[in-house]
Amino acid sequence: MKIAVCGKGGVGKSTVAALLIKSFLEGGYRVLAIDADPSPHLARLLEIKEKITPIAEMTDLLAERAEKSGPYYTLNPKIDDLPEKFMYKRNGLNLMVLGAIRTAGGGCACPEQTVLRRLLTYLLLTSRDVVIVDMEAGVEHFGRATVAPIDMLLIITLPQRGSVETTHQILKLAKELNLEKVYVVGNRVKDEHQEVFLKREFGERYLISLPGDEDFERREFEGEGLLDYNGPVYQKIKELKRKIEELSSEASRCAKS
Ligand SMILES: Nc1ncnc2c1ncn2[C@@H]1O[C@H](COP(=O)(O)OP(=O)(O)OP(=O)(O)O)[C@@H](O)[C@H]1O
Ligand SMILES: [Mg+2]
Predict the structure, then answer these.
(1) Residue 45, pLDDT above cutoff 90
(2) Which CATH number fits domain 2-256: 2.60.120.10, 3.30.70.240, 3.40.50.300, 3.40.720.10?
(3) Beta-carbon count within 10 A of 242 CB
(4) Which residues of 65-197 form beta strands (DSSP E)?
(5) Is 13 in the pocket of ligand 1 (CB under 6 A)?
(6) Considering only CA atoms, which residue is closest to atom 18 of ligand 1?
(7) Ligand 1 mean position to 61 CA, how many Å?
(8) What percent of the chain has pLDDT over 70?
(9) Could you state, in order of their start, the residue ranges of all structural domains in the chain?
(10) Lowest-confidence range among 66-70, 81-85, 140-144?
């Protein structure tokens, strides 16, 4: 199962991605986490202190991969086949970081996006593997169809007009890419009134509401990760994980019949 988490800037994409990773790991899955944000935070949230070489720094590899399909892609790699050079591995968790912050005014993210799209296309997964991609904020990457090979897109939204507008924009772009499993997750939803508003906006695509938790502010301030967080947002994330499993097994039943 390949899942991408997207949405407007600051809505909670990395928080949701990190907590979903935690819940899949606790469920016995092997997880490949990909931080596709040019300003990556996932390693910190997952309490990984080791430096991971971003794919963006591997210019030779990028040039080669962007031009032709190299051995990793034509052979349909499994998670274990991926080059250790730019991957962190720990007890079922694998983390790759896509791109570093580019210099102001310079460079385009296309080669990294191409590598990511190819990787997502050709990677072979078992039923106990899950890939979770923490996407760059906004909609720019949709132009390069980086998310086209994923199985499920989760759009994180706040109960605020700006974030809701971006979510509608993403839903439209996802439709153009023929993505079917596209769902909306409400974050920092305070009350029923806000939940009703989001349900009305997104109908059946609306999966779940996550509450706000002040504890995240303290954790950010202290530079603490989320691996030991078991508060109210995590309780809802576990429910979200179950829904994701149901939706993906429904899909494979449909595909078989
Ligand atoms: N449910 C929540 N309750 C309280 N604070 C939250 C919640 N979700 C996220 N936050 C806080 O909001 C801020 C932004 O969250 P996060 O970094 O996950 O968003 P993002 O969408 O990944 O942002 P960016 O677009 O910069 O990548 C963080 O300080 C995080 O701790
Ligand atoms: Mg983020």
Answers:
(1) yes
(2) 3.40.50.300
(3) 12
(4) 88-90, 93-97, 129-134, 152-157, 182-186
(5) yes
(6) 12
(7) 32
(8) 84
(9) 2-256
(10) 66-70
